[in-house]
Amino acid sequence: MTMNHSAVQDFLWDVIIVGGGPAGLNAALVLGRCRRRVLIFDDGKPRNAVSHALHGFLSRDGVDPAQLRAIGREQLALYPSVTLDAEQVVDAARTETGFTVCTSDGREFRARKLLLSAGVVDVLPEAPGFAELYGRGVFHCPYCDGWEMRDQPLAVYGRGDDKGAGLALEMKLWSQDVVLCSDGPSDLTPECGQRLRRHGIALREERILRLDIGSRLPYRASFDIVFDSGPCLHRAGLFFNTTRCQSTDLAKRLGCDRYDPQGCEVESHQQATHVPGLYVAGDASRDVLQAIVAASEGAQAAIGINTELLQEDLA
Ligand SMILES: Cc1cc2nc3c(=O)[nH]c(=O)nc-3n(C[C@H](O)[C@H](O)[C@H](O)COP(=O)(O)OP(=O)(O)OC[C@H]3O[C@@H](n4cnc5c(N)ncnc54)[C@H](O)[C@@H]3O)c2cc1C
User: Fold this and answer.
1) How far is CA 227 from CA 94, 125, 233, 307, in A?
2) Whole-angstrom Cα distance, residue 123 to residue 82?
3) Atom of ligand 1 nearest to the CA of 25
C-alpha cells in the first residue's frame, strides 16, 4: 500500500507495529493475510546487525540475518494492506479509539492496536576490542554461536556463581578449554570455585585492559586478552554475560505495569499488562531471546490482535 504522507496521517490503521525484525515482520505477515491495515515502522538497527550468520532457525540455519529480513520484506510486499516506513517512532499515547504514534520527523499516526517489537540493545563490556570483535570472536549466546566455536580455546566474561561460573560450566558442552575471566573480583562462593576446579575451568581475576586482535578470518577472529598483570591469554572466542536494555521505553510510558528494561512480562498472545490494545513481542518481551522465538511471538501477537479486532467489529 502506498499513500502520501498527509493522507497517511488522517488514516486510522488497524495496527501500528514498532520494529520490523523477525517479531514485527512475522506479525505484519499474519495480519496482512487477515487483510488488516498495518503500518510497520523500522529504523534499521537490528540487534544482530554485527552477526554474519543466523543459527538455530529451521530452514534458515547459517543465513545472513540481513537476508532473513530482506526475504521477510519481499514477501510482505505481496500484501497490499501492509505499509513499511523507515522512520523512528519517538512517542506514543493512548486515545479513546486506540493509540497515537509520533515519529522523529514530526508526523503523527493513529491506530486501534499497537504492537511493540523494537528489540533490545546488548550492553558490552567496556574494554577496547569487545565492540570490534562482537559477532566475530565475542558472543553473548552459546545457543547462537557455541557450535561454531566448538573444541576451540574459549573464555567466559562474567562474575558470580550464576552469570560467571554458570556460563563457564555451560560452555564445557562446546569446549574442554574454558577460562573464566571476571575482570576484577570474581564474587564466587567457595563451593562454586571448587566446582570450577573440579571441571578444569581456570579463573583469571585480573582486570582486562583490552582484546588484541590476532588472526583475521572472514567471519571469525582470534585474539589475545590483555590483563593489567600476568600473561596474555590467546582465545578463539569469548562469551559474555552482562546485560541488555530495551530499544525503547514506550511500553513504560504507555503505562505497562510489568515493564522491565530487559524485557516486559506479557500475558497470553503477548498482551501487555494494564494497557488494553497494547502488545509486546520478540526480544522486547521476556522469554527466550532467539529469532525464531521472536517470529513466533509476532505471530501469536498478530492472532491476539486480530481476534480482539474481530470481537469489536462483529459484536
Ligand atoms: C551478535 C548476535 C548474534 C545473534 N545470533 C543469533 C542466532 O544465531 N540465532 C538466533 O536465533 N538469534 C540470534 N541473535 C538474537 C536475535 O538477533 C534476536 O533474538 C532477534 O533479532 C529478535 O528479533 P526482534 O524482532 O525482537 O528484534 P530485532 O531483530 O532487534 O528488531 C527490532 C527492530 O526494531 C527497530 N526499532 C527499534 N526501536 C525503534 C523505534 N523506536 N522506531 C522504529 N524502529 C525501531 C530496530 O531498528 C530493529 O530493526 C543474535 C543476536 C546478536 C546480538
Assistant:
1) 51, 14, 8, 56
2) 33
3) 25
Total domain count, the chain:
2
DSSP letter for each residue of 178-209: EEEE-SS-----HHHHHHHHHTT-EEE-SPEE
Q: 311 CB contacts (<8 Å, ≥6 apart)?
A: none
Would you state the pLDDT for residue 2? Answer: 43
Q: Are residues 145 and 87 in the same domain?
A: no
Whether the per-residue pLDDT at 191 is higher than 60: the answer is yes
| Domain-ending residue, one of 206, 240, 274 | 240
Which residues are bridge partners to 224 per DSSP? 212, 234
| Euclidean distance between CA atoms 224 and 236, whole angstroms | 9
51 and 82: one domain? Answer: yes
Domain that holds residue 285: 5-122+243-313
Predicted pLDDT at 261:
87
pLDDT, tens digit, 9 for 90 and up, residues 103-129? 999 999 999 999 999 999 999 999 999
Higher pLDDT, 242 or 32: 32
Q: Measured between alpha carbons, how far is 307 from 315 in angstroms, rounded to an integer?
A: 12
Find the CATH number of the domain harbouring 251. 3.50.50.60
Ligand 1: residue of 61, 247, 252 to mutate (most ligand atoms within 8 A of CB) is: 247
Q: What is the mean pLDDT of residues 32-55?
A: 96
Final residue in a domain of this structure, among 240, 256, 281: 240
Return the ligand 1 atom nearest residue 20 CA. 33
